[in-house]
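Journal club prep — side note

Before the paper discussion, L.F. wants everyone to see what a predicted structure for a comparable chain looks like in token form. Sequence:
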Amino acid sequence: MRRMFLAAAFSVLGSQVFAGTSAGYGQGGQFSRFDPVVAQYNASGEEMRIIGHCQSACTIFLAIRNVCVDPNARLLFHAGHDRQRNISERWTQHMLNHYNAALRNYLVAGGYMRTLAFHTISGRDMINKFGYRACK
């Protein structure tokens, strides 16, 4: 019984959104869920911590001016697409516009933004190779 309770509790916690972190957003989704968060954090100046698994639309949190990346985070990038999973230049550009120049150039040069396959970059590399601030 205790195991079932713990499993249920972790299941609920895993889907919750924790203020100030990317937790609860890690699986990505539609930009309409993410763009307002970016705008809110940029308006308030509050820190956003990218932690854990952050794929797809979650990566646009990199555009928050007071963002930090946990060295143990994993960010997964791919081309933007429509609801039918057709690659879209418009949505790919929307994502790219949220990244700094070093990351954007790397993703474009590597062809990672021309496919729906995920390309993973560690939080450590986001900090050391692409200049994002490490969370303290």
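L.F.'s comment for the group: The chain is about 40% helix and 10% strand. Keep this in mind when we get to the figures.
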